[in-house]
Amino acid sequence: MDHDLQLVRAAKRGDTDAFAKLYGTVYQDMYRFALYILCHPADAEDAVSETVVEAFVGLKKLKADELFKNWIFKILSNRCKAKLREYCKKNEELTQEILEGANCREEGPEEAALCREMFFSLDQEERMIVGLHLFCGYKSREIAELLHMNENTLRSKESRAIRKLGQNIQT
Questions:
Q1: Is a pLDDT exceeding 50 seen at residue 1?
Q2: What single-letter DSSP state applies at residue 86?
């Protein structure tokens, strides 16, 4: 039996050490994903922390133990989306610090916002595939294993998602 699967089952029975070990296996990838999407280290940390709390509380609801990583990344994706909505509702002056945070890559704040908007125009599975590949550095084989799908199917879905992003750029 897979070690992570044993940890999930133990965590579902209330073993907090097992949950902590599970968290340790995904923390870096979760943080990288959130940081790319949100561009603010503190907000990325908050999103990851909120995700972990939600996952810990709701772990018993996880039906397929082998899908733990997929499940926790879906929670994180939703948390990041909520944080982005919060950004849009804030009525604060654009300070240099905010502009630098929005400019987490080489593009300006408008381009960074457009990239995030396009990323979130993908459906959840597409975001998961593209995010795990581009932001977390997973290979197709690893993502296919994580999402329990055929590697060729995964590549097709990723290709379609990237084409969809390209179409969004042109419009």
A1: no
A2: H
